[in-house]
Amino acid sequence: MKRIWVTLMIAITACSAHAKRVTCKHFATQAEAQAYMEKYKAYHLDGDHDGEACECLPGGSSHGLARCRR
């Protein structure tokens, strides 16, 4: 019974974390995304691992480049 309970809790936690995953679409500017990434250690917002979150957003180093227009 304890094993079932632990498995259930892990599954619920994993689903909850996935449902709340924040993406660059949640921010209006790169600065907002950067602050969020640093505060909550949301390093998935830095796709190329250069330390800059959501660089295609306004204010980011890649804003307006062709690679950002997908």
From TrEMBL:
Signal peptide, first to last residue: 1-19
Keywords on record: Signal
InterPro entries: Excalibur_Ca-bd_domain
Recorded superkingdom: Bacteria
Residue ranges occupied by any Excalibur calcium-binding domain in the UniProt entry: 20-55
Pfam families: Excalibur
Protein name: Excalibur calcium-binding domain-containing protein
